[in-house]
Write a structure and sequence with these properties.
alpha/beta
Length: 220
């Protein structure tokens, strides 16, 4: 298991006013809307989600790093757990023509409004119960998804990722290292159910037998 940070350049592009986040709109109401993972979350007001999640090619750099790290080649099978609108999946197929991709997400809206080229390879499903056979994929990725699960489903999801993967897995989750980052995470998040330090995440990985790579998103 290695710590591989491929996402900080994307994460740091967004400028965040944490106090405005909790003062401009009732946070509890924003979270209720966001956790439906419907229009409001993806394409509604920024106060309750992405504020319009459109393809802009930002994930291509991450795709290229994943290809290089894991030696992806045509015919390899990749699963994205929590694929959303499948923008990273699309960029992976552009980086490696012939790559076989599948994606699942709990959001029916996200799947129905995903990158058109990817829709035949997507389905609505839970990370806690992946609809695939054992050892089905050469690489499994899960970006900014697993912290949205309650602990009992997080346990299942980590075990499911381990079950359906062969060797390579890469997970990115939100975390905090100090009280400032903890407060910022609480102010900014809308859908997070698990708030864990890196040490606590490692406890989860060990408990569930997760053997893949990982990195953390911090709100500095």
């Amino acid at each position: 298991m290695a710590y591989l940070d491929f996402l900080t350049p994307i994460h740091s592009r967004t400028k965040r006013d944490y106090l405005a986040r909790v003062n401009e709109f009732p946070k509890a109401e924003a979270a209720k809307l966001a956790k439906k993972f419907d229009f409001d979350y993806w394409d509604g007001d920024r106060k309750v989600g992405y504020g319009g999640y459109k393809y802009d090619g930002r994930w291509r750099k991450v795709a290229d790093l994943l290809v290089a790290q894991y030696g992806l080649k045509p015919g390899d099978r990749v699963l994205d757990v929590g694929c959303g609108k499948a923008f990273l999946m699309y960029d992976l197929t552009q980086a490696v023509p012939g790559l076989e991709v599948r994606g699942i997400d709990i959001s029916r809206y996200g799947i129905e409004h995903a990158k058109e080229e990817m829709r035949p390879f997507l389905e609505v499903a839970s990370a806690a119960s992946l609809p695939f056979d054992d050892k089905s994929f050469d690489l499994i990725i899960s970006i900014n998804t697993l912290h949205n699960l309650y602990c009992f489903d997080l346990d299942k999801a980590l075990r499911e990722i381990e079950r359906v993967g062969k060797k390579n897995k890469y997970i990115v989750v939100e975390s905090y290292r100090n009280e400032d980052e903890k407060a910022n995470l609480l102010y900014w998040q809308l859908t997070c159910e698990g708030f864990y330090t890196p040490e606590e995440w490692q406890w989860w990985f060990d408990r569930c037998g997760y053997t893949g790579d990982h990195s953390f998103i911090y709100f500095e």
